[in-house]
Amino acid sequence: MKIATLIERRQPCRKVQGIAAALLPYESDGRVAVEAFQQHLIATHRAGLMNAVNMDTGYVNYLSEAEKRDVLRWTVEALGKNVPFVGGAYIEPHTGDVVALYRQQIDAIVRAGGVPILFQTARLHGLSSQQKAAVYQAACHGYPHVLAFELGTMFAPNGEIFDEDTIRRLMDIPEIKGMKHSSLDRLVELKRLALRDRQRPEFRIYTGNDLGINMIEYGSDYLLGLASFAAEKFAERDRLWEAGDPAYYALSDALQYLGNVAFRAPVPAYKHSAAVFLHMTGRIPTDRVHPKNPKRPVWEAEILRDCANRLGCV
Q: Could you tell me the end-to-end alpha-carbon distance of the chain, in angstroms, rounded to an integer?
């Protein structure tokens, strides 16, 4: 399909589904700031976005199984049993049968009332599209609502951007209702949307492109770590787009400015940017991050303050 055809896809006044990947905050002594985490989930829900926990933004790749269960418990305690949320099903670095490992993670998330999203595993790298799809089909069989995940390697080494045949096969799995796409490449995502429209129109593509948040204009929904920085502003932007209000553009540009700053290389350090921003705006008690996560320079607060001022957050 020609690129000109792809970029003519804009869908004004479309209602967008927004999901914010929650940061896990820390106290000054290194303990998880549970109360601040729960209050942040509540604020995100009240703003009109769905929460996603045990995601890359929540350091899922560094958490133990017990810690992941704690996050699910804290989430349900904060939101209540009838409020939907997304939970990451992450199986690295465990050994054993991949399908069984995924189903263990999915079971825990579903028991908590969440919608599981399957992180990729490096153990499927190099397999054929048919083999990969067979693993996903077996892992998801019988569950009412599962999401898949394409994660670029700039975020994590277990990630992979699938070829089109794999995407087509995953879209054919009825339990998988949508996919988060995090290549940070607009053209690849536009091709995903075009394939979706041809093959399974109700299938949701959730953009994970924090450097291209206006992908919602072309038919993507979103699941973004950036949305956790300023959930109320993302919700406002979404309402403006749905209403056809031209104020959408200025707000979208201000949010994208924040995204460009926070998601610069090295990309995983965006979680430190998130902690600095949320601490600056009074949402969490410190700007500490998980000890294994890369950190930003000491002047991070200075550059993020300009982003916050542009958004009216401080």
A: 45
CB burial string 215-240: b at 16+ within 10 A, e below: bbbbbbbbbbbbbbbbbebbbbbbeb
pLDDT in tens, 254-298: 999 999 999 999 999 999 999 999 999 999 999 999 999 999 999
- Cα 108 versus chain centre, distance: 19
pLDDT < 70: residue spans in the chain: 1-3, 6-7
Residues in the chain, total: 314
Give the integer Cα–Cα distance in Å for 67 and 271.
18
Q: Which amino acid is at 313?
A: C
pTM of the model: 0.96
